Every structure is written in C-alpha cells, then in structure tokens.
Amino acid sequence: xxxxxxxxxFGLACIAAFATLSSATASITDAEHEGFxxxxxxxxxxxxxxxxxxxxxxxxWGSSLNHNGMSLFLTTxxxxxxxxxxxxSPTPPPGPEWLAFEIEHAExxxxxRWRRRDNPGSPGSPPPGSSPPPSMxxxxxxxxxxxxxxxxxxxxxxxxxxxDSYGYLHTYLTTTLxxxxxxxxxxxxxxxxxxxxxxxLILRLNRxxxxxxxxxxxxxxxxxxxxWGLDGVLRMEAGFxxxxxxFSKGLELVSANRRPDCPAGGCGSGGxxxxxxxxxxxxxxAVSRRYHDIGGGRVKIDWGSMVSGFFYEIDLANPxxxxxxxxxxxxxxxxLRAIRxxxxxxxxxxxxxxxxxxxxxxVVDMVVARYADRLxxxxxxxxxxxxxxxxxxxxxxxxxxxxxxxGHSAAMGRCSRFYTLGVAPQTHEDGLVLAxxxxxxxxxxSTLFQVRKMVVEEPDAAxxxxxxxxxxxxxxxxxxxxxxxxxxxxxxxDEVCFIPVWPYGDKEAHERPSCRNTTSLMKGWWDRRYWxxxxxxxxx
Length: 540
Description:
The protein is of the alpha+beta class. The protein has a domain at 67-114 and 133-145 and 166-354. It is built from 17 helices and 13 strands. Helix 15 (428-457) packs antiparallel against helix 16 (463-480). It starts with a helix and ends in a 24-residue tail after the last strand.
C-alpha cells in the first residue's frame, strides 16, 4: 500500500513537472536535437557520479577531490550575508568583480595594483583586457614560494602616493536575495585538466578560450547569466567565490579598510618568513572550515534545478587515459548547445520566488552517514563472527521474518528505497536524481545481501567466505568512491587535513590527504605540483 501510494505521488509529480517544463523540451527540439535530452538511462549509468555530485555540492572537500564539475544549479544568497572583496582601490568596482565568502580569501587580492615598469604613472583600475595582463588580473600576488627562475620583470607594485598604491579589503552586505548560477567542482581553477569545462564548453560554447583570461571569462559569463535574470556566478577555488555582475545592485558597502604595507617577501600568502608561512596556513585553515558546509545558511541550492552532463548519453571520457575525472571535450557542439539550452530553460523556469524542492543533499547525507564508516570497517574485519554481526545489524531492519521472502527481494526493495520513501519529485531533474540515488542504494543493499548470504546463510562459513565478502565490499567501495574515505583521521590544532585546493597542492596530497602544519604545508608544490599548468608567475 505504501509503495502504491508512493508511485501515485511520483506519477502525479512527474506529470506536473513535465507539463511545467514543456517549453524546455521544445527548445531542445528547436536545437535540431530531437531525441537528445536528459534521460533516466543516462542517470542510472552515471548514478555514482550524480550521487557524489550532490553530496559534494558547495562543500570544499569533495569538490576539490572530484574537481571536474559537470553540473550547474540555481542558487541563492539571502539578504544579510557578508561578502568580501580584495582590491587596490577604496571605491566599489562597477562589476563584474569577485567576492569571497571568507576574509582570508579576499585578503589574497587586497594588495597594491600591478603596474608596468615602463609606465609607473598608469591610471587606476584598467578596463578588461588592459594592464595588468589577463594572466595576473585575478590571481593572488603570491603563490607558495617559487623557484628562483620564476620572475615577472615587466610588472611591479605601485609605490607612489596614488590610492591604488595600497591594498583594500571591502566588506559588503547583501541587501536582497542574490540569484546565482553555481558551477560545481573546482570551477574557478585555471587548469587544462577539465575544471573550466562547464563554463567554457557548455555556457560559452568556446573550445579555444584562453586559459588565464579570467576577466574576459567573467564578463562573458555575466553577459550570459544576466540575460537569464541572474546576478552572477558562484564558483570554487581555494574558497568559494561569487562573480558579481553589477556591484550597484543588491550590495551595501560596509567598509573599505586599507591594508598594511606589504611585508618583506610580498603581499598575500606565501611571502617570505614566518609571517608569510602563517598567512598561508591560516588561509588554508579558513578554506578547510568549509570542507563540509559553506556555513551559516549563506547559500541555498535549488536541487530541482540541477542540469548535469551526467544526465545525458554523451562522451564524458577524459582524453588523458590515466585520469578518472570526466571531461566535456567529447560531446559535439550541437550536444553542448542543447545542454546549455536546458540550463537556460530550467533557470528561467525556476528563478524568482523560492520553489519547492527536494533536499537531495539531505537524502544522500543520510545514506553516507549510515553506510560509510561501517562499509570501511567491514571491508577490513578479520573474523566471520564480526562480519555476521555487522551485516545483520544493517539488514535485519528490512527483513520481515514472519513472511516467506524468496531471495529477500522484498527486503532488498525496502532497503534500497529506505531513504527515498517520502520523496515526491517536483521537476524532471528530480526524477533523474531519484533514479540515480536508488541505483546507488540498490547497489549497496544488493552487495550487503550477497555478503549476508556468504557469511550468515552458509552453514559452514569460514575464512574463504570472509575473504569473498571483504572482496565484494571493497569492489562496492571502489564504485562508490565517497570523498569521506579520504579524510584524515584527526589533526592537531596546529594542523589542517590538506588536499589540493587550486592553486595549491601536490600530487601526494590528492592521493593521500594528510595533516600538515605551517612548515610541511608547502612541500612538493613546485616539483610535484598537482594542478596543471602551474600558475603564471613568469617564464623560465
């Protein structure tokens, strides 16, 4: 009876969702892509990636580990949220410009303006495309201390009496609801590894966009999302940032405080001496506080607006055959254009007043909370008795011992749908996420019932059965690839659990994140750096 009622609710919700989104279907047809669109088959095929996308959205940890975002969401920042902007000017910029959620993030940009040595009297903030060059336009003044062959001979810091000879930290207060397009993953990372795929390939439809032209990218993104009625774009690097298209709308300048003169070794993080090391460490510590939540209800995601490359039957293979990270270089231009049309239609259909939405992150959080630690433990237990107790503890909830259930098919269904019983999809995208989540939970439950068969139902379960059970669990974990399993066991007050966050980090930290302090934080960043290519600090 419960299942029938749930199917009825699901059917009615889907009928309403499809009726509401009929214009989106028409747009895709107009794009000469009849038959191409988001599908349940693709959602099931990419179920584990969709599950992890939702679990990591607006969370620094998972979005750094799985840095090639494939998904876009409508998000809002409520009124009354403080945001920060580092600059060389005491006056608010017109936009587009960048806002940081964390003070330490904005401080990286609160330094005097770059000037060319052959033009020390150049005026204030340049228009897009002029000095400073795009490679330096929106980058911290200092990356971790670089080898001596890195240099920037044509640029220096302003040292005259002009206002832009100093750095300023602006603090703004949102005065109204800001509506933004969130690009998941490390979408503010200037790499050729796939971090820019959603914005350059889906939104900009540009396969040859210059890697370091951040001002040009920001301007074009604002041209796009402003035409859809949005206020900007939300991205992530070492910290979350907003590209705010117009600073005169929805923001109140609270303060514009001049920063102290740059110490020896430079401004920003990574400068010389103990102070530089501490500045960098505290910046990374601030970033780490957002590993699992942006905090303070500062961002709300409309989960029903999710548009993802994972919803489409397209080529997401990485040209670098050694990488598991997906890419968007394989789909045709027509396919990318159709996905962009879907984004536009969904945004226009759901912007404005707050819509009802399924809290999909809450659903997947419940799944991860129940199974993550127990699966990892069970994959390593060394006695049959412990394995029996653990698997019974997980599955007895779903087994009705009063009825005959051949193969436990009914119990399997109850287990798979345990966290989605009350879900009523509001949009077509909700239906795709539901299919993906239940594909993942079915995989978990079917594996656990297989383990139960090996160690509980077999009368003579022994070491061989235990090893087969552990192998099944390890295979399941390899498919799930939950970011939680890479977290550090626990760090001291003077340490952070470090994973590469653009532009910082080494290859070892991505494979095996570990606790690091001020002295160990920078090891390997230049000879074994993770992010490719390296930051534009000059040329050899």
